[in-house]
UniProtKB/TrEMBL annotation, chain A:
This is Decaprenyl-diphosphate synthase subunit 2. The lineage of its organism: Eukaryota, Metazoa, Ecdysozoa, Arthropoda, Crustacea. Belongs to the FPP/GGPP synthase family. One of its GO terms (cellular component) is mitochondrion. Keywords: Transferase. GO terms for molecular function: prenyltransferase activity. Pfam families: polyprenyl_synt. GO terms for biological process: isoprenoid biosynthetic process; pheromone biosynthetic process; ubiquinone biosynthetic process. PANTHER family: ALL TRANS-POLYPRENYL-DIPHOSPHATE SYNTHASE PDSS2, GERANYLGERANYL PYROPHOSPHATE SYNTHASE.
From TrEMBL, chain B:
Gene3D superfamilies: Farnesyl Diphosphate Synthase. The lineage of its organism: Eukaryota, Metazoa, Ecdysozoa, Arthropoda, Crustacea. Transmembrane segments: none annotated. GO terms for molecular function: metal ion binding; prenyltransferase activity. Keywords: Isoprene biosynthesis, Magnesium, Metal-binding, Transferase. This is Decaprenyl-diphosphate synthase subunit 1. Its cofactor is Mg(2+). It holds the Pfam family polyprenyl_synt. Signal peptide: none annotated. SUPFAM superfamilies: Terpenoid synthases (SSF48576). One of its GO terms (biological process) is ubiquinone biosynthetic process.
Amino acid sequence: MVSRNGLIHWKTLHLDCIRFTNPISFTFSRGFSVSSQICQNNWVKAVSNAEKVVGFPTSFLSLRSVANDEISNIAVYLKKLIGTGHPLIATAKSLVYSNDKTHQTRGLLVLLVSKAAKIDQTQDIMPEQRTLAEITELVHTAHLIHTGVINLNTPNVNLEMGNKMAVLCGDFFLAHSCVQLASLQNIKVVELIAQAITDFSTAEFIDIVANENDSALDRWSYQSKLRYGTLLAHACQSSLILGDNVELVEFGKSFGLEIALAWQANNEIQSYKNTSKKADHVLFKLFPAETPINEVISNFQAVRDKHVDAALKILGEFPKNDANLALCNIARALKY
Amino acid sequence: MSRFLFGQRLAMKITSRHLREGYNGLFKSQLLTTNLIKHKNQIQTGIPNITNVALDAVPTTGNLTLRYDAVVRQDLSGLYGDIRKCLSETQATLVPITQYYFDGEGKAIRPVITMCLAKAINYHLNVTSPYAFCLFCFHLIIYVIDYITICSFNKIRSVVEKQKKVAQIVEMIHTASLVHDDVIDAADSRRNKSSVNMVWGQKKSVVAGDFIVGRSLELSAKIQNQEVINLIAKIVSDLVSGELMQLDGSANAEERFQHYMEKTFKKTASLIANGCQAVSVLAGANSTVQTVAFQFGRQLGMTFQLVDDMLDFVSTSAQLGKPAAADLRLGLATAPVLFAAQKFPELNQLILRRFNKPGDVETAFDLVHRSDGLEKTKELAGQYCDDAVTQLAQLSPSPYQQVLFTLTHELLDRLK
């Protein structure tokens, strides 16, 4: 009953979010938002099919597990934030309301990898692997929320409130994932996910500026690897450890890394295409200043395609089955 | 053997009673009266000046810091170094933020408690376990065979190493929570220096806090003990749910105190309690001894926080390293206010609106000093302190246990 109430809170919140559209716009490159219409059909199809393979839709994946008393309390405060323009609202909204299937796809990937590794396809995904998929979502959401905290030099009551809620929400997701992680009873998995947390925290402190050893593009790869790669790589690796697919563990790890980088690269391309302020975008910094826009895009598409191809190649090591096919389709949908 | 132990227990009970009554006597005769006199003065002047009421009320207890330092100094000397090392293998720009609060200026009271209790429990298990006793006799007989001694010595050392890691994790998680709390409360100072969010901004501070949590989890995985991981996960989830409880001041006046106590357990005591249990798990304690460890940590943690809440009303900002009456300013009703509300029900209105109207903080501060809120808080802290002592007395007498007895009372009578 309690959890039902929590869910209702979230739903009302989400309705409110839609009703009051945000007056102030913040430019944040947040998570994955593939908004281009052309790719959307391919993408939605690939993800919807994949959801059928693993048995249930992944939207609400993380909310179902945390829709309880404590979070409903936060939801009340979140309502007050609507209209302040704090990025937390955008993140909360995308969690509850996403029909472009671009959110909570990490959990889906983990489930697909778990399923694809099973030689006997009648075997179901283990409950531990489902928990791990949830943890992956929770940890990623916590990361998104915490990086949405705004630096305030002058006191601003509303935005301070937003920051307070963002810290608490993120901490709540992290704490919940800690408990879930402990319940998996596997110390190696705890270590791997903990490393992912330290890695994405570290990523916020990396500048994308070329130095004597690395080009700007190398720095981008390094930052994206820490920010998104480690979590997905370690989550895929962990799910194979839990499933006892010893010989595939390393492939799972590399697949997670490649697909995360391909995904992020695609994401950067989409946001670069859509943004009006091209000079502020991260892609602009990766290539010499005089490079034309089309060339920047095609150069970076090459980077993305390299990662997609690497991911597809690794999938060749997995048994041929529906889950594997679904993973291939998702990877290809990134490269349209 | 058992008769001998019984004798020891009895002696301990007597000692602890003596300690308790000694403390009670001190409490009644000196602290209370001095406080009351001061309050009367304040009522007369009508100005609730935030001064140090208890400074001259508590006799100086001598240099106790040195005494407990001597017992666990060996184990804790490297603590901050280890933590800094653990946090330094990363991006150079992140290092100063994560290490900012590990400057050695903190009381490091949590690792001291954890390590002392670890040693007390190790000692207790070696003395009481029949197996250890047999082993001891065995060693006496064939102590010439060096390698056995070396093996068991190594085993003990590896246990202590793991327990030190727990102490380190406890301090790291605590510090991460401080960093996040400072952002949540928009604090500008801590331990007499600018708070981390003032120096680096909110976003980097929050992420740096996450980094410390991540490293603590990595470290707990390195201990290679599932039960310890469960306890540490419990610490993290309790800390956060305590913080969430703080958001929601229970509307019902009767439930308010219960709510406050639960919040206090989750935010402060859980860290110490579960940390204590974790070191006892590593020592190989059975569930009875584990419960003793947990309960001791819980009672001590409650004492610690109740005293902290009281000091917020009596110490100066210079002593606390943060502004006095900070809790009221944050809209929080702690034990002194809740007790005061029993005498002055008009406080309930202020509690409900979280002291957000001009003058509310001053009114509440004044009413707390005019009520017996501070004495009742100290009395409650005293009860928890006694319970902690009772728990501790169940362990075999050892120098570590003595240090903890002293420390427990010192925490009750501290000024900052």
